Amino acid sequence: MISIKNLSKTFNKNIHAVQNVDLEIAEGEVVVIVGPSGSGKSTVLRCINRLEIPTEGSIAIDGVELTDPECDIDTIRAEVGMVFQQFNLFPHLTVMENICLAQRKVRGRSKSEANEMTMKQLLRVGIPDKADSYPRQLSGGQQQRVAIARSLAMEPKIMLFDEPTSALDPEMVKEVLDVMLELASEGMTMAVVTHEMGFAKAAGDRLVFMDEGMVVEIGPPNQVFESPKEQRTKDFFDKILY
Amino acid sequence: MSRHERSDKKSLSDKPKWWDTFPWWGIAIVAILSWMGYQILTKDSYDLAWDRVIPGISITITATLQAFAMALALGLLAGMGQLSKNVISRNLARTYVEFIRGIPILPLIFTVALVLLPQLQNAFGFKLSFQMRATVTLAFIYGAYMAEIFRGGIQSIAIGQVEAGRSLGLSRRQTMNSIVLPQAMRAIIPPLGNDFIAILKDTSLLSVLGVLEVTQRARQFSASTFKFREGYFVLAFIYLILTLGLSLLLGVLERRMTRDDRNVRSGRGID
Description:
The structure holds 2 protein chains of 2 kinds.
Chain A: E1 2-11, E2 15-25, E3 30-34, H1 41-48, E4 56-61, E5 64-65, H2 73-79, E6 80-83, H3 95-105, H4 111-124, H5 140-152, E7 158-162, H6 173-185, E8 189-193, H7 197-203, E9 206-211, E10 214-219, H8 221-226, H9 231-240
Parallel strand pairs in A: 3-8, 3-9, 6-7, 7-8
Antiparallel strand pairs in A: 1-2, 1-4, 4-5, 9-10
Helix pairs in contact in A: 3-4, 3-5, 4-5, 5-6
Chain B: H1 2-12, H2 18-21, H3 24-42, H4 44-53, H5 57-82, H6 87-101, H7 105-124, H8 130-155, H9 159-167, H10 172-202, H11 214-225, H12 228-265
């Protein structure tokens, strides 16, 4: 479904954030990307919906080449949901308006269609009673769940998660991970950058370990955790797992 | 015992006393305006000056509103232009802003209203009154100042807001109109209010083109009667009433906006 070939991204001509990354993500697959800070995992994710423009290589979603200047990026982005570390809800709009905005303007849904879809997604993330609240009135965990609902309302083919729990208070991590676990079990195609190894074990089909802009190791999460092939991977997990 | 409590209270309480926060300046201004108004009402020579100057107020107000509206459109255009991806519009906007900001208003009014616009009039065959020429010039000048306000306001919105909008499939324009601009208004409205008042005051420069707004009328009255004190006293009174009234109005608007702002800034309180 997503085919990344020889992807490289260089910032300011000399910072090599991502180097020669190859990655295939199949439909319904949950790929979890882990690695130390600055290893390029977020950059890979952001290239998938072209928030970063690749310096080299190609990314194709359902056969549509993203690096082709002719491609209609807005149409592709509507099919690719993205959840950010900082939630990025629109503070001047209510939860309902946050979720309805792109449905109305991009999907062209009527007000009642959009409202209906919004309530369906809010129910799914467990906060249907917050539809009329403003983002500032919600806890971090609630805000992130609204952000997930906002992406899901577009009925995307794939969901990208960029460290969705890293900005949350510890007691709010679980409510967001639970939503993501349920989404995974429903068969959503997902690419998740995270430090939550528990989530990787529970929901990940494949684990990608990245370091210094390169993919070091790919495999089933349990195998990569327990018997990593590369020394660098082993060092990383030795440091972070208790 | 009671003395002890009282001193405790004093050291713990941050609550300011009423005379500490009372708007004494407002009392002072009302007192000064009342005194000025009293002079004008009771003294014949002041009354005469008032009668000669006050008819100009409609031109002053009209020119202010027209110049402000035009400057607003120009400023938004040039402000967005500076942030444009298009290299031509970006540089056009930048040139306009830098050029205007580098020249004082008075020489600009002479140059634009007496040289540039007449040439354009000849070239394109239209005719503008002196009043309109001067108003257009003011708009042209304040458009450049406002461009910087719009640019700053738009840039103050976190990039994550744009990324969230774009990642949902919204176009650049849709993201700007539905997400960035509504939030930027919070940062834009107070300095725009300042420029509104500044334009009002700078309409006095229309007098150099002989436009019969309040300043020109005060000049004419003073020159023909030699009552300089009365003429300019009345003129100052009229400007004060207008600017103070306007800033009072803008203050209400601003307070409403910052109250909103404080709620946003207070972060994520639990509902």
